[in-house]
Design goal:
- The complex is a heterodimer of chains A (about 230) and B (about 250).
- Chain A is about 75% helix and about 0% strand.
- Chain A is an all-alpha fold and about 230 residues long.
- Chain A has one domain.
- Chain A starts with a helix and ends with a helix.
- Chain B has about 250 residues and is mainly alpha-helical.
- Chain B has 2 domains: about 180 residues, no CATH class; about 80 residues.
- Helix content of chain B is about 75%, strand content about 0%.
- Chain B is built from 11 helices and no strands.
- In chain B, helix 3 packs antiparallel against helix 4, helix 6 packs antiparallel against helix 7 and helix 6 packs parallel to helix 9.
- The radius of gyration of chain B is 24 Å and the shape is elongated.
- The chains are: A mainly alpha (about 230), B mainly alpha (about 250).
- Chains A and B meet through helix 2, helix 3, helix 5, helix 6 and helix 7 of A and helix 3, helix 4, helix 6, helix 7 and helix 9 of B.
């Protein structure tokens, strides 16, 4: 991977990061979209799809309601994809299930995203005061422009989170890989199953539907038994 | 529109619509979307007012505002209609500030439940079936399922809000979004049940185990869901489960 690839990753991180809150909200920021898009632009869409499928359900139940800031699964997905493609290209990491390991490493690093997102929203508070001052001075257009400056704050937060994940992951993976490569490869089937199960469980716990476990259990049981019969 | 109301043209409404996509650019903890609401409404306010009246209108819309970003379309569309009434001196019993203050919280709850709680998980569950088969259609399926209703409410919400004014509340009530959200959530749970069953079956087949062991996943998911409800974070649950799996495979 070249510096250009890292920059492409950063560009997607910023665009998808803005899509989370500040602009458009077409949900390009969802891991199932952002990760395959990153992978496709970096030449390995399949790695991105694997990362996206692992991360998508995990924080889906955390709603961006009011002042609540959900964990930054967008940057986890983009960062893990960049890391997976980079490490899959290194010969001494060839045996590693890269999307899985990189997602496991990126997840705790992604906690930084909430901190930077919160900081961006605090900085935006200054824009509000700036707009109030502009209105008091009769500068209406300046008040409108203050609003757009917030895009810069959110973009900076997304970029710094991406740096933390990709930078931190690049430092951690060579240290951890010798110890975890073999066990993770052996357990990869079960680990890949663990992600959607945790995501589903969290969604079940938060979805606020009566008899949610009954619906899930009936659907799971009947589908599994059908697959067993066929 | 100019023919019917004579003040806010379709071109201005188009500019308002485009600005709706940037409603949350300056989201902050003090007044949340207030500056965004002002930014969205500005093209219409400039048509309706001049000089001191315009500055006053700007200040009016810089007050606290927070709703679901997609549901802001009908709210702000109706706000333009009310501003137009005020501009003509035909203001009703409910002013634009009172209307926004009264309607933003219920609309936020409706939008959160329908779009974040219902539609997004459903679209994700469907897309994950494609991802499970390794199909790169997964992101496109997700984007299509989510964005058709999203763009519909953004576009027609603004239009109906402006043309109907206060009556837009009744129109939206007829759509029964909260009931629809519950149906979507139920559908999501059924889909996730099927998806988890397929993934479990595939994993057991891959490891040469009997498929019937898969039924043990139901109590596991129930336990994890209970822990999530008790406040255990997703990160903690994932890392703990991953560590247990690694330990089991190594020493089991």
């Amino acid at each position: 991977m070249s510096w250009t690839d890292y920059l492409i990753g950063a560009l997607i991180a910023v665009v998808a990061g803005l899509d989370r809150t500040a602009a458009f909200q077409f949900m390009v920021s969802r891991p199932i979209v952002a990760a395959p898009l990153t992978g496709w632009l970096l030449g390995d869409a399949s790695a991105g799809l694997q990362v996206g499928a692992l991360v998508e359900l995990l924080w889906l139940g955390r709603l961006p309601v009011g002042a609540a800031i959900p964990p930054d699964d967008t940057q986890v997905a983009v960062g893990a994809t960049v890391l997976a493609i980079f490490f899959a290209g290194l010969t001494h990491f060839a045996a590693l299930p890269a999307p899985l390991v990189c997602t496991l490493v990126a997840m705790p690093l992604g906690k930084a995203g909430q901190f930077f997102d919160r900081a961006a929203r605090h900085w935006n508070g200054r824009l509000l005061h700036r707009a109030q001052q502009a209105l008091a001075a009769g500068k209406l257009e300046e008040a409108e422009r203050s609003h757009l400056l917030g895009i810069g704050h959110f973009a900076a937060a997304a970029f710094v989170t991406y740096l933390v994940i990709v930078g931190g992951g690049s430092l951690l993976l060579p240290i951890l890989a010798p110890y975890f490569a073999s066990p993770v490869a052996e357990a990869s089937t079960w680990l890949k199953l663990a992600f959607p199960l945790v995501g589903t469980a969290v969604l079940l716990g938060t979805i606020n539907v009566s008899r949610s476990l009954t619906l899930f259990g009936a659907s799971f049981g009947s589908a599994l038994l059908l697959l067993w019969l066929v | 529109m100019e023919d019917e109301k004579g003040l806010v043209s379709r071109w201005v409404l188009l500019r308002v619509w485009l600005r709706l996509f940037l409603l949350q650019a300056s989201w902050n903890f003090e007044r949340l979307q207030s500056l965004g609401a002002l930014y969205v409404l500005a093209p219409a306010l400039r048509v309706l007012y001049r000089d001191k009246d315009l500055a006053e209108a700007y200040r009016r819309h810089l007050e606290y505002f927070n709703t679901h970003p997609f549901m802001a379309s009908p709210v702000l569309g109706a706000a333009i209609a009310l501003e137009e009434e005020r501009c003509r001196g035909a203001e009703g019993t409910l002013g634009v500030e009172e209307f926004k203050g009264m309607i933003m919280a219920p609309y936020a709850a409706m939008g959160d439940g329908f779009f974040w709680g219902g539609l997004r998980p459903l679209a994700a569950a469907v897309a994950l079936f494609f991802a499970a088969k390794g199909s790169l259609w997964a992101p496109l399926v997700f984007l299509t399922l989510f964005n058709v209703p999203h763009l519909w409410i953004r576009t027609f919400g603004l239009w109906r809000g402006y043309t109907l004014g206060l009556k837009v509340v009744e129109t939206l009530q007829r759509h029964r979004l909260p009931d629809l959200a519950i149906r979507l959530k139920e559908g999501t749970l059924v889909l996730l049940g099927g998806l988890c069953a397929y993934l479990t079956y595939r994993a057991l087949q891959g490891e040469g185990e009997s498929s019937i062991w898969g039924l043990s996943v139901i109590p596991l998911v129930a336990l994890l869901g209970w822990l999530a409800r008790r406040g255990v974070s997703t990160l903690m649950l994932t890392m703990t489960l991953a560590a247990l799996v690694l330990a089991f495979v190594q020493f089991g």
